[in-house]
Design a protein that fits this description.
Blueprint lengths: L9 E5 L3 H10 L4 E5 L2 H10 L4 E4 L2 E2 L2 E2 H9 L7 E5 L4 H10 L3 E4 L6 H10 L3 H55 L4 H25 L3
Parallel strand pairs: 1-2, 1-3, 3-6, 6-7
Antiparallel strand pairs: 4-5
Length: 212
């Protein structure tokens, strides 16, 4: 039986201070941290990866954490965002929450405060997890049903194209034989469809009568 290794939860941490990076790496050793040192790199990593939490500094070399928070919320409206910054003025916190953040820690923080905040933001209540699984399963079933319908439609379309090509080939062969026998194109055009239907219907009628 296959065994699946439980993967660590992933956090994107955007901060340009090396000492802060090292401290957070030690504090959050149970998580898989991906680092970015400015707004541009942070946004690129956020777009490319799938994360359980974003931790942002509000002062970045090429912009603000508020701007990065807004940019992330344009394509990821649900993943929690935690600000971990020395910018601690009331308007900084208000701007962060308005941009879509769930929590704001002002450096320096007390021992364990960052760990507790991260644990709270990355913990999913059991009822929420069950509901998410149900929604995921429903979405998968719906997508499979759509694809099955599309496959049936493709098969029917392919059949129609094949029958059209076969009919065209039969018509061309019949026309060549008709003209070679001295008939005219006008006469062939008038007689083709009734004759074709008679031959086809007669073929299937006799085929059914014979039990084939």
């Amino acid at each position: 039986m296959a065994k699946f290794t439980r993967q660590k939860k992933r956090i994107l941490f955007v901060d340009d201070h090396e000492d802060t990076l090292q401290l957070v790496a030690l504090t959050l050793a149970e998580f898989r941290l991906v680092y970015a040192r400015d707004l541009k790199e942070g946004l690129q990593q956020a777009r490319l990866g799938y994360f359980d939490l974003y931790i942002l500094d509000n002062w970045l070399p090429d912009g603000s954490g508020i701007g990065l928070c807004r940019a992330i919320r344009e394509f990821d409206p649900h993943t929690p965002i935690l600000f971990y910054s020395a910018c601690g003025y009331p308007h900084d916190l208000q701007a962060a929450y308005s941009a879509g953040a769930q929590a704001y820690l002002v450096k320096p923080v007390k021992s364990g405060e960052l760990t507790r905040a991260v644990a709270r933001l990355t913990s999913i209540p059991p009822e929420t997890a069950i509901e998410a699984r149900r929604a995921e399963s429903a979405a998968i079933r719906e997508e499979l049903a759509i694809r099955q319908t599309e496959n049936v439609e493709r098969i029917e379309t392919a059949k129609m194209k094949y029958l059209h090509a076969r009919m065209k080939a039969i018509r061309h062969r019949a026309e060549m034989a008709f003209l070679a026998a001295g008939g005219t194109r006008g006469a062939f055009a008038r007689e083709w469809l009734p004759l074709f239907l008679e031959e086809v219907c007669g073929y299937y009628t006799s085929d059914a009568a014979s039990g084939n």
